[in-house]
UniProtKB/TrEMBL annotation:
GO terms for molecular function: ATP binding; galactokinase activity; magnesium ion binding. Its EC number is 2.7.1.6. NCBIfam families: gal_kin, PRK05101.1. The lineage of its organism: Bacteria, Pseudomonadati, Pseudomonadota, Gammaproteobacteria, Enterobacterales. Residues 94-182 form the GHMP kinase N-terminal domain. Belongs to the GHMP kinase family. GalK subfamily. Residues 10-58 form the Galactokinase N-terminal domain. Mg(2+) binds at S130, E162. Gene3D superfamilies: 3.30.230.10, GHMP kinase, C-terminal domain. The gene is galK. This is Galactokinase.
Length: 382
């Protein structure tokens, strides 16, 4: 039974009548463009075939009833006519409540809904299970009540809910790719304008994600430090964001900057340029150049932005040694653990999986988790 069938069956069993709609929103992986989003730069993610699925039906009153299939069918019920506040004990409920509250604040008119939520986006792996949930819930209300919202507005609503209601700082990339992803494509996103360009992926190429399963501890504090260093760099150049600084301008005065800030700035500027070039390389089907850009990105994250850890570097080295110049691999996500992403010919996937299985745990004492994904469609009915 697939996710859609599972949620529809559970909906009928619990509520006693069939769901009228089933909505999905995918998780994502960022192929290149790390720590560029909050510098108004470019990112190149793709939606993946792991998703949140919601079976739902509009109600004729003002009650929202939600069942979380993945949390032992926990229930959340609240009214649209009372102030929506955070749930004391069910964290998943706050993503749903936050999206609904922010839809209300944006003056959207809608009524009650019954829904059953299930998903298979791995949690805590940096594949955006929370953004997938926010976009799925937003799409439910848009579809059931014909709200005049496009994908970008649903994404912004989800980001607002996560920042202000759940209380977790995030950029816009995760929600935007979940809402606007295109099958067999990556999406080049301009984080300043929110403009997007679909970039076709070469045929016969697999998107492989490997979770290092190294427990991240420094993410919050180090993330904030990196942001401050980038803002310091932008102020030095008297620009609103590092997006507005050229590599030439940086190279001319790099020695005048604090050495650590200079390294952070160099990463952002070079990563932005790499991301734009990577979109072009992918479109041409130039997997070799894409691999070089991913290698440069990883080296920059390791040496200039200093956000990798030995376990991640080990994973990257194992994959790189196996694929040579047939594709690329790098860390993806905020850093200090998490996942690596590889773009490789489908026929090399078994060799990569075998090499990682044989070497990674032996070298680090940690067992990895291996995912093979396809670039998938963004949110909508399924």
């Amino acid at each position: 039974m697939n996710l859609k069938e599972k949620t529809r069956a559970l909906f009928a069993e619990i509520f006693g009548y069939p769901a009228t709609h089933t909505i999905q929103a995918p998780g994502r992986v960022n192929l290149i463009g790390e720590h560029t989003d909050y510098n108004d730069g470019f990112v190149l993610p793709c939606a993946i075939d792991y998703q949140t699925v919601i079976s739902c039906t509009p109600r004729d009153d003002r009650t929202i009833r939600v069942i979380a299939a993945d949390y032992d069918n926990q229930v959340d019920e609240f009214s649209l006519d009372a102030p929506i506040v955070t749930h004391d004990s069910q964290q998943w409920s706050n993503y749903v409540r936050g999206v609904v509250k922010h839809l209300q604040q944006r003056n959207n008119a809608f009524g009650g809904v019954d829904m059953v939520i299930s998903g298979n986006v791995p949690q805590g792996a940096g594949l955006s299970s929370s953004a997938s949930l926010e976009v799925a819930v937003g799409t439910v209300f848009q579809q059931l009540y014909h709200l005049p919202l496009d994908g970008a507005q649903i994404a912004l609503n989800g980001q607002e809910a996560e920042n202000q209601f759940v209380g977790c700082n995030c950029g816009i990339m995760d929600q935007l790719i979940s809402a606007l992803g295109k099958k067999d494509h990556a999406l080049l996103i301009d984080c300043r304008t929110l403009g997007t360009k679909a970039v076709s992926m070469p045929k016969g190429v697999a998107v492989v994600i490997i979770n290092s399963n190294f427990k991240r501890t420094l993410v919050g504090s180090e993330y904030n430090t990196r942001r401050e260093q980038c803002e310091t760099g932008a102020r030095f150049f008297q620009q609103p964001a590092l997006r507005d600084v050229s590599l030439e301008a940086f190279n001319a005065v790099a020695s005048e900057l604090d050495p650590v800030v200079a390294k952070r700035v160099r990463h952002v500027l070079s990563e932005n340029a790499r991301t734009v070039e990577a979109a072009s390389a992918l479109e041409k089907g130039d997997l070799q150049r894409m691999g070089q850009l991913m290698a440069e990105s990883h080296a920059s994250m390791r040496d200039d932005f200093e956000i990798t850890v030995p376990q991640i570097d080990t994973l990257v080295d194992i994959v790189k040694a196996t694929i040579g110049d047939q594709g690329g691999v790098r860390m993806t996500g905020g850093g200090f653990g998490g996942c690596v992403v590889a773009l490789i010919p489908e026929d090399l996937v078994p060799a990569v999986q075998q090499a990682v299985a044989q070497q990674y745990e032996a070298k680090t004492g940690i067992k990895e988790t291996f995912y093979v994904c396809k670039p998938s469609q963004g949110a909508g009915q399924c």
